[in-house]
Structure formats: structure tokens, C-alpha cells
Amino acid sequence: MRSGGHTAGSGRTSRLDPFCLPVRFAAKDAAADKQVRHVELHRERIVVRRSLAGMPMAFNMPVSSFSGVSVRTTPGEGQEPGTYAVVLEHKDPSLAMTLFVAAEVHEAFAEWRTWGNVLGLPLLVEDEGALREPFDRMGGVRIGRVRQRRRRHNAIKRRRSTMSFRRRVGKITGATPVHRGEHEIIARN
In what order do the strands lie in the sheet with 55-62? Predict the structure, then answer.
């Protein structure tokens, strides 16, 4: 399966489909011969093939070796608006790969979240030149505000009473009767 990575329509948009993996595409590489490298992107691994000084090389890396999926902005030149790119980030900047480029920020954020979910990598944003996660996480779980439980549209709402949610916890005070030394608390007639 060979894909050029471009969508139909605008020439300013390039897109790889995250739901049609594995995908093969060519990417720019300044250090490689002919300034091109060939990439095979799978859900669990990435194979990068390039030729350096006439010697063919292939890197077979697991997806987990990448830092995450980032969204980067590129300012436009002159009157042109800037572009937004979704990039698969690696500790080695030469191994970073652009997965999506568009002029619309909403499209870029949707693709950013989709690629993060498909590859199982954290989402990253650029903050003062460094990459960081925009959301708090504990392991693989994103941490957020606790939201109130809504029972209004629950499927079993009519089968359960709401009295248990309205009751308050009892408090033991000095006036609360305590029966010590009794054998039975239940009165029998």
C-alpha cells in the first residue's frame, strides 16, 4: 500500500489517514541522498529507509520509542496565513515525522487527538521552545475535574429511587440513645 500522503483539494493540506495503517510514504530528509526517506508506519512500529552516501539504511523502531504527537504552528509568509502541523516527535529531531499539515486550526487539533489515540502516545504542545503535555496525566489516564453525576438521561433512572441520593449521613451526638448490655435490639411482640 503506497500513499503519497496528500488529500484531494487544497495544495496546502497534506494528510495521512490514521485509520488505514500501515501506510507507506516519502518524506523530506536533508541528510539523505536525494533528500528523501521512505517511511512505513504501523500501529506498533515504524520503519524508516534512507540512503546515506550511497549506503542503504533501515531503522525499525517501536512506536513507544517516540515521545508523543505534537501540534506545531508555522507562521505564514507575507499575506499568507500560517499552517498547523501534526508531528510524531522523537528525542532525535531528525527522526520526527510530519503526519498532517493544514491551514485550519480545527482540522489540525482533530487530527492531533486522533493520531494520539490511534498510536497510544501522549499529546504534546510546544511551550517556550520545549514540548509538554497540555493535560495532567497519571500513567495512561488523563486527570481532570470531577464532574457531577447526571441521572436525568440514564437508562435505568425510572427503576431506582432518588431518595438514597437525598439522604444525609447520620451523626452521633450526646442525645443519641446507645443500648449497651442488651441482647436484642429488635422488639418482638
Answer: 23-28, 36-41, 45-52, 55-62
Task: Please tell me the total count of domains within the chain.
Answer: 1
In Å, what is the CA distance from 62 to each residue of 36, 50, 91, 118? 21, 18, 13, 14
Grid cell locating 79: 499575506
**Structural domain of residue 90, as residue ranges?**
14-134
Q: Tell me, what CATH number does 20's domain have?
A: 2.30.29
pLDDT in tens, 7-16: 333 344 567 8
What is the C-alpha to C-alpha distance for residues 68 and 124, in angstroms, rounded to an integer? Answer: 6
Answer yes or no: are the C-beta atoms of 48 and 56 closer than 8 Å: no
Has residue 143 been placed in a domain? no
**What would you measure as the largest C-alpha separation in the chain, in angstroms?**
101
**Overall residue count recorded for the chain in this entry:** 189
> What is the per-residue pLDDT across 68-117, written as a single tens digit (0 to 9) for each?
899 888 887 877 778 888 888 988 888 888 888 888 888 888 888 888 88
pTM of the model: 0.61
Is 173 a domain residue?
Answer: no
